[in-house]
Amino acid sequence: MNLLLAYSFVTYAIVMVSLIVHVIWEYIKGTNIDRLMEDDAYWERIEAGGIEYLLIVFIGVLMIAIFRKSAGSWKTMFQSKKVMNKVSFVKLFFVFMMPQFLGLILDFCGEGILNYFGYTMEMSVESAFATSESIGMLLYAGIIGPVAEELWFRGVILKNALPYGKRFAIIASSVLFGVFHANIPQAIFATMVGLILAYVAVEYSIFWSIALHIFNNLIMGDGVGFLISGLEVKTQDLICNLLMLVFFVVGILILLHDKKEIKEYFKENPKGQGKHYLWYFTMAGTLIFIITNFVVSLLGISKL
Which residue ranges make up each domain of the chain? Predict the structure, then answer.
């Protein structure tokens, strides 16, 4: 947990240093700094490059490598359990995609509540569902980022929480995965998706959770976004919403069909003792991690 906290601070540090470097460079060029800070298009172009994020991922994987050297072999992280057959993969894929529609509903409700009090989280929603605009960002958001996140949350956090029970490890790692995104709409969605990814990593292999994560970001995110980018915005929204609805309905049908197996899994893996959750989420490292990312997530809320 302290390692994850350190990684979180490294992330913010690199972003801040990048911001300062760009400001200094523009100042040397004679750019009006006040106007620069208000130039949203300029900062969107900088963020779209993705260079800083690739650097963050590189440092993060290096930190994991150092941790694994002291904690044991990488093999323990990539051990396979059950064999993933075609039927299981298809079922898990549809259930994995279900939170897309649930997230849409929650975002709509959350935005309505905020609007009532004169606020909006539109900036957070746009950031959460934005497609990549450069090769660097595509590599980060579609492939490298998902691999790094799986190594962190399913490879390090989940694996080290497993001694306290599978359900505890799945829930704890998923909550932290959501918090890590420091974006309220994305955090809710990531927590729900994290439950499926954690289950897959525990019962099958982290290879499969990586595959699902990459498929979601690269194909369902950037891929679908690219294919419909030439259409009107309303048409794009309609297609995405209908697609999410289909995944949700099919996912519900799969869960209803397999409800006996799901109940058996819950019986075999009790939810864990309350003291474990209390201890885990009140550790200094965990509290600082949650508070820091929550404060950052509030930056995505603004007045109407």
Answer: 2-303
